[in-house]
Structures are given as C-alpha cells and as structure tokens.
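quick q for whoever's on today - can somebody do inverse folding on this one?? i tried earlier but teh output was garbage lol. tokens:
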C-alpha cells in the first residue's frame, strides 16, 4: 500500500462522528465539554473521575445519562472505544492520566501545564511516539488573532535575529484558590497556572530555542499572609516568580509572573531583534489606543515607532468578531483527530516549556542556577 493511500485509510470518514472521552471532570472539563457539545461531528462516549459519582454527575448535567462513567482512566480506556480524549486532571496527575490513554491508541488533548516534572513530560512524549498517536497541549492563547499576527511578523524575519525575550503582565490580585493552591495536586502555583502561558507566548514566536540554564526566585509573600489570603496557613505554592533563562542561539529569556503584588504590572512583553523589536503593552486595549502591539525599527537612519493594527474577521453592520480562542483550541483538536494529526500544539514542542517550568521550580528551591537536561524521548 502506498504511503498516501495508507494515510488516507487512517483518517476518519467525513461523515463519522469523533468519539471523545473526558478524563477528570472538574472545573476545566466544563470548558472542554461546553465546546464539544456544540460540535455536530463529536460524540461524547465516556468520562472518568477518581471521586466516586463525580463523572456520573458531570455527564448527567449535559443530558448524557446513557454515556458510561468510570472512576479510573484504566476502566475508561478498557471499556470505551475512543478516537480522542481530553485530560483535565490535576497538574501532578497529567502524566499518569495521559500515558494510559496514549498507550490505548487514543489521541490526547492535555490541559496545561503539560506536567509537573520534565521527566513526566518526556514520558508523555515517548508514549505518544510509541503509540503513533499525537499529544497536544491546551494553550488556547495560540488562537488569539493578535498573537498569531506577532508570530508571523517575527517568523518573517522582519526584526532580524531575536536575542532577547521578556515576559510581562501579572496580576495585582488574582490568586485563584481551589486546587490551584494545593501543592499535592497542583505542584506549581502561579508558575503552572499562568506562567506557562507567558512562556509559550514568548517562546513559540521564536520557535522554542532549547533552554540551557535557569536562575530563578519564587516567593509566596501574599498567599502566606492572612491579610491577603484566607487560607494562608496551608498555602505552599508560589504566587510570584522571576527567572533568567539562557537558551541556545544566544537567546536570553527573562520571565516574570505574579498572582499578587503591589503594582499594576510586571512590565510589557518584548522581543528584541537585530533589525527591530515588538512590544505588547501591558493593560487593556482601550483609552483610544488603536492597538497594544508596537513595532520598532529604523528606516533610512530614522527611528520608526508604530502600532500594529488589529486585523480581525468581521460582519458588515455588526461588531468585530474575533475567534473565540477556546473554540479554536477544541475545534483544532477535533479536526486533527480526524486526520490522525498533526498535533495543533505538539507535546514535543511544549517539552521545552515544561523544562523551563521544571528549571524555575528547582532553581528557586535550591537557591542557585540549575542546568536543564532534556530527557531522551
């Protein structure tokens, strides 16, 4: 059989519904399900959760009373035929939940962060390769229209070689609570919740150079203070972290993220190149600003500082309609399952994101710079 013909046979028929399972039925699973139930080419065929009755209640809340519910991922993959599955468990259980699904020959969309340790992330990629099923990670900001525009500009070479990247933003007050602050389940605090988003935003634009070393500091002055957080006595994760990451290709990455601080921002997101630069200004896109994204370069010896204007699909005589980033994330996963890949946000790529998170965590705990070693996959 020719490669082209074989590939075609692996694709799911155009009129067939994609069979999707849900692993972990907590809060984030609802974000997945709210999109799945709107896709007429998706059928939810099962769900599981380690808490007795939780998966059953979850399915029933969507009117799926005849869809089976289980209390372990093993029982789900053993008893239900699936084409793809959403892994929506706690951060520290992403690997142990995703790997059995991949080993059962099922494509996986795993929520962020990819895992807790770099070894877990490598094991997930290894399982994906062995099973020849893709692993994609849930970074929905990839579908933001301005982010895609920035990526294209940088990829075009317009700003030359990028040698410095800086994350910005941060929350003045925004500790989320729930399992996000439970060390045994989340592992990371701010770093795993929103920090991994910042890393992806900054480094996907420059095609994820390999991280080499990390020097980081993480603190939790707000989460451990009852003045600012009611559960201060049990708060053991980070609510603020900064890091200097040395990367291949003489790229320096400065990372900053916060759940709580006495400031409105940790600064702007920035890519400095040899021929220009792009800056995303922190804050709302308002106050008569045409855009928050700025472009800096030189033309004939003159400094040129300009805005990069929004460019969104719109409906005549109606408001601008940017793509819903969650719709983009879920739709892309379903479409990729239909064609047996490729992964919209490949686990192989996010392995470097996880390596940086792992390095930040280790460096902050040890109080010194650490080397990043990527396990073989």
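ok took a stab at it. sequence:
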């Amino acid at each position: 059989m020719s490669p082209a013909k074989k590939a075609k046979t692996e694709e799911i028929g155009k009129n067939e519904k994609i069979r999707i399972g849900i692993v972990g039925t907590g809060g984030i699973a609802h974000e997945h399900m709210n999109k799945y139930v709107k896709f007429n080419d998706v059928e939810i065929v099962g769900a599981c959760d380690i808490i007795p009755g939780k998966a059953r209640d979850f399915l029933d809340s969507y009117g799926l009373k005849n869809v089976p519910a289980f209390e372990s991922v093993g029982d789900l993959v053993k008893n239900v035929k699936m084409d793809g599955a959403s892994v929506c468990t706690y951060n520290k259980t992403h690997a142990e939940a995703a790997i059995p699904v991949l080993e059962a020959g099922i494509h996986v969309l795993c929520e962020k962060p990819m895992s807790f340790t770099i070894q877990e992330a490598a094991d997930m990629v290894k399982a994906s390769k062995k099973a020849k099923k893709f692993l994609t990670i849930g970074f929905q900001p990839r579908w933001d229209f301005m982010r895609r525009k920035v990526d294209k500009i940088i990829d075009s070479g317009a700003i030359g070689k990028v040698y410095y990247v800086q994350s910005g933003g941060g929350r003045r007050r925004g500790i989320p609570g729930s399992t996000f602050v439970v060390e045994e389940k989340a592992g990371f605090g701010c770093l795993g919740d929103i920090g991994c988003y910042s890393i992806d935003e900054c480094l996907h634009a420059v095609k994820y150079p390999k991280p080499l070393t990390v020097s980081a500091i993480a603190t939790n002055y707000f989460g451990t203070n009852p003045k600012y957080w009611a559960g201060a006595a049990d708060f053991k994760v980070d609510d603020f972290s900064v890091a200097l990451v040395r990367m291949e290709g003489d790229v320096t990455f400065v990372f900053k993220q916060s759940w709580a601080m006495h400031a409105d921002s940790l600064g702007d997101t920035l890519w400095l190149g040899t021929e220009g630069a792009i800056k995303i200004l922190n804050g709302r896109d308002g106050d008569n600003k045409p855009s928050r994204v700025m472009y800096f370069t030189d033309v004939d010896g003159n400094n040129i500082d300009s805005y990069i204007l929004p460019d969104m699909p719109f409906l005549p005589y109606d408001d601008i309609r940017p793509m819903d980033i969650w719709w983009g994330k879920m739709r892309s996963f379903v479409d990729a399952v239909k064609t047996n890949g490729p992964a919209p946000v490949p686990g192989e790529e996010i392995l470097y994101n996880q390596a940086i998170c792992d390095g930040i965590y280790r460096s902050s705990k040890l109080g010194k710079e650490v080397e990043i070693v990527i396990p073989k996959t």
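fwiw Confidence is low (pLDDT under 50) at residues 1-9. also Residues 3-140+329-346 form a domain with the Rossmann fold fold (CATH 3.40.50.720). so keep that in mind when u check it
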